[in-house]
## 1
Amino acid sequence: MEMSHEFTLVLAKSFGLFYLIALSIGITAYAFWPSLGNRFDTAAKSILDDEDGPCR
Amino acid sequence: MTQLKSGERQLAMILSGLVLLAGFLLAAAGHGDPMGVHGWIVVLFAAVILVVAMRALDDPEPTEDRTMSYYDDPTKVGIVIALLWAVVGMGMGVWVAAQLAWPDLRFDAAWSSFGRIRPVHTSGVIFGFGGNALIATSFHVMQRTSRARLAGQVSPWFVLLGFNLFCIVAASGYIMGVTQSKEYAEPEWYADIWLVIVWVVYFILYMRTLARRNEPHIYVANWYYMSFILVVAILHIVNNLAVPASWGGAKSYSLFSGVQDAMTQWWYGHNAVAFFLTTGFLGMLYYFLPKRAERPIYSYRLSILSFWGIVFFYIWVGSHHLHYTALPQWVQTLGMTFSVMLLIPSWASAGNALMTLNGAWGKVRDDATLRFMMVAAVFYGLSTFEGSFMAVRAVNSLSHYTDWTVGHVHAGAMGWVALITFGSIYALTPVLWRKKTMYSWKLVEWHFWLALSGTVIYVFAMWNSGITQGLMWRTYTESGTLAYSFTDTLVAMHPYYIARAAGGALFLAGAVLALYNVVMTIRRVPDHAPHLDYPTNSEAAEPAVPAGE
């Protein structure tokens, strides 16, 4: 298949459009997924006290 | 060196030996060309490291268990180097600014002409100061947030020193007139290849450290740092695709030509702003601001959303640099639209930072370090708004090619990037060197006000100058000819150029204070054994935190 201007245009307007819409929906869903709230809170708090060395 | 095992010292020796050989090769192939001079610079740089490694070769092996502590030595060195570059880069900036006001300050030498020392200024502050600060803080942040030691003893040094070798080759090249004429991507092909090697090692190091993490979730600051490393690699490689004119000289020809070349360059150029000067520093903001304020980030969910927003939108905006050019109209419109949309995630980040401080304003008032970060977030909000606005084609018709653009860049670079970096450095220095406090809080306070007044003077001077310039260029007489000659506009700019140099000088004075303060903290402030618990080893029976707390 030849990578012509027309071909890339069709690709961008079809696949590209829907893949980016899917990506943004996916990210929003991830960011606001209710059950992930605890994990996010823990992560946000965990940095406040982290000078005690690696856990190994 | 004392922390390195003998095998690692040998590896360091071999690596510096290889770089030394490469330097000789460059010097031999580029004999009689600036490339040859670069070869000798590389030889000298590698020789110094080789000697250091060789002298330490027979030192005793490190005795303490290295897995029990973070590896902070590269971060420490990186912070000091960053501050040295800040003084050099900003000093060059003040000189360049002064040359615009008083052209005699060129002193009639070729190497000191505007076109040569201006890139020394831009590369010095962006790559030298910004880049070293990013590398150093990323080492710090990735270890803390992952609760894991750096994955490697030699590779962090390779990244840090290798990157600085690139910076030195770049800056010395500009002075000799070596440039591929691409803004922010001036270094020639051999320097570019070297940076790719360094950057790939950096990326692998980051991934390997993250893979060792003891936290289930990767903290959002790491996402920002990762995007910085990954995207800068992509941008650098694509924009610097070029064919050397010969193997024996510092001259190459870009693979792209005409409008494609311009588009590739500004796709690179604006994403250098995005992924070098924004996402990496947002990583700093998302780590050091909550840490300093001792409050978790206001909304972690929002930080994730704005991360993806910034990554997704920024990639498309480069074409707003090419309004009213041969670039197809739809590409210009695309860049403009995405630039306007970019305001949403940018303000989400700035708002998130300020909301985190909501309820801790007392701390912001008392603590200049936190104030640095707060003002940085405000300037981030202001300059992203300004940027979106300037990307609109109608506004751009006035602002483009004028000093307004320069003012906008410096609102971002001084107000946002430099202030967040200085704030982070002041927060980091006592922690890193295990000191009770900074050497002088008064000097931090002085630095803050010098930096802020310098930025404000600079930005206002350039706004006035830029808009005046833009309006003068487009003013026509009744008979349809231009009302002002180019020289008329230069005369009108003169007072603003003096003000700009003065603002820059204030900012430079602040950076000098920062370097002095950090060095004195390392040398003079008594050590502080932190009241910390044992690392929470999963096999340890005792709880990490005393039960009473």
## 2
Amino acid sequence: MTGLLEVDNLSKRFGGFVALEGISLSVRRGERVGLIGPNGSGKSTLVNCICGTLQNETGSVHFDGHTLNGASAHQRTRRGLARTFQLPRPFASLCLADNMRIPLLYSVATRERHSAGDIEDRCLDLLRQVGLDDKARRLPRELTQVEMRKLELARAMASEPKLLIADESMAGLTHSEIEDILTLLNRLNEQGVTIILIEHIMRAVMSFSQRLVVLVSGRKIADGEPETVVRDPEVERAYLGQ
Amino acid sequence: MIFSFDLLINAIVSGILIGAFYAAVTAGVSLSFGILDIVNIGHPAFVILGSYIAYIVNTTFGFDPIVTSIVVTPAFYLLGTIIYQIYYVSFEKRGQESLRGLAFFFGLLFITEVSLVLYFGVDYRYVQAPYIGPTWHVGSLDIPLRVLVPSVVSLLLIAALQLVLTRSFVGRAIMAVAQDQLALKLLAVDPIRIKRMAFGISIATASLAGAFLIIIQPVEPSVGREYIGRVFAICVLGGMGSVPGTLIAALLVGIVESLTSTFYGPSWAPAVSFGFLLLTLAVRPAGLLGR
Amino acid sequence: MRSDLFLLVCLAVGGVVFAAAMTLGNDYYFFAGYVVLQYVVLSTAWNVLGGYCGYVNFGSAAFFAVGAYATVAIHRFHPMPIPFLVAIAGIASGVVGLGMGYLTLRLRGAFFAIATLALAVVLETLTVNWDYVGGSRGAYIVRPEAIAPFGSYIRYLFLIMLLIAIGAITIARLIERSRLGLGFATIRDDELAAEASGVPTLRLKLIATTISGALMGMAGAPFPYYIGFLQPSSVFGLDYAINSIAMPLIGGTTSWVGPLLGAVLLGSLQQIATVTISSAVNLLIVGFLLVGFVIVAPNGIIGLIHKYVQHRPDILIGRRRIAADAPGPTP
């Protein structure tokens, strides 16, 4: 029985700089995985390689029984692999509802048929889930920082993913705002979405993750029970210990 | 056989000479596009403006075009800083540089060209100088001085630019502005001021390049457009903003163009450099964007 | 409004325009109107790629020229009715557009714009060296004096250009309101985010370059009949390059209304000005207008109207899409 996502011996370099080296990672269906590591450890590069924004040189990525090597980013999204960006990247000239409409039209509609009214309802429903339904006709630039993050999450949810990779969705947010986002992610997980959470805020990662993966300088140095991993001396030295 | 060998050598030498001149025309674009990320497609129009100023002064007072162009560089520098200021306030600050910034420079190119047409007409203009006319003969090699002199001064210009960029504080700040604006701010250097200076220098080089151009060939207002693709091809080929890279790429384009012109006819030469550009852009996009 | 209804309205407006021109009876109005309509097509076509997708094409003249020279080449081979020529020219320049799309597929922003400029010069060089269509000397196309039932031939050409313009506007509006148009907007806003949302950005860009190129070529197809003597310089000149960019940007790029408005205003202005002042002054004015507008009114006339009429923007430009008054900085 293989997992939903299987990353095998993946490497990526930029010129002479080795960003990722021999990363292997397996994520089970329905799991909540936390991915941590210091700045520049390769977390975002790994996300970019998994999601097809960057192409890895060696190694392979399998998702839901398909090999993803060479597949473009939009094909991966259509297969059910969604992500958020570290800095929210909304479609600036489209209203919030249309921001939702894009993944529905270009990703979900390629798998199943929907009527126009259906899609309209889905857009509003998604915005309601993140508490933005009253701003459906507004433009993204009218949103606050936390609303922007929620929009980013909602857009990723709109593609109805099997796996959602949330890349630092909580940076710069207040305590209660972090709780909001965590509640949202937990609810998604209960609905059966597998989630990889990339985060610096340890409290959030620890309370959310069932399993913790640690990257340091492009290598995976730990993978296991969160409580065990954070006590791992190597992790403490490289990441937590000062 | 010997005849075509002579032809080949001559073509290569004149390609090298023209290439050095291309480097001077491209230097400004390497600064603005390569380092500052400002897509000044209007740069060739400023080069033509330089040509016409050299022409006016030359025909009225009989001054040497190159000397004239050096004297007017401060005016060009000033023009550059003004243009950058407008560009910064209207586009860079608002984050609209891509579409509207491009249209802005296209508009400037256009206004300059049409103004020159209105004032001088579409006749070819040329300058007088002692080195225009004579040709050195070295064996079977013909080296017209009207090409040699601008080439040599071009190389001096390139060398001076490289020195400024690598040795002076302002030069290093210019190189830094592309990499890390925050670090500059921490040094209490205003990145906008540095960019303004860099753009000023970029336009100032157009004055000299303009004088070189009108020495090498007669000039009419639309000649500038032929140079747009050429300079951007060289800039991209040369690795975006590297002065030595620009020189090498310019020599390469000069030689290939000269060979084409010699063996296939001059009417095909423009397509060569533009084809070069299309090919570079199409074949090496990752390298280009992976800055 | 539904698209078929919109087309009917357009045809009705077109009918009125044509009838009005017929009652004026002076062929001058047809000559002038033809040029304005030609700009309506070019500016609408430019906007499909430039306004909707955010990709600046400096090579409009090249696509226009492909259309015009397709006509010359076919005419030399075997004369054909103009509607056929328009169709063939559309296919030819659509293929060139597709080719350009493939060649520049992975280029963003400035690189793409420069590549289109290069394409124009390459095509001009090819044309100058292609003797079959006259090379640098140019080619004569004899325009028939009259054609039934329109009377003079220019009226026939005018009608054809009118229909092409209506077609172009309908297509542009259709794109705007479709899934395709939304996809185009995501390319303009953020290509990475678009891909991450499942938008096949590369394929959409190819569609945009093809449609835009084909429409420009169709605008060029009747041109040899209009001008009578076609030289490379008459199509690769500055007029088309500057106008097809200036008109949409001055009108406003977010909807089909902008390019139409820009083309009609600027085109008419130039037609009037050509009579009184030289064509160079004319182009100078366009240049200054372009620079002035991009600095002062980044969203063109439509943007200005929105500012002063305090209405929801969606009233003017369609139900769903809201024009960005000033797109924020792209990350």
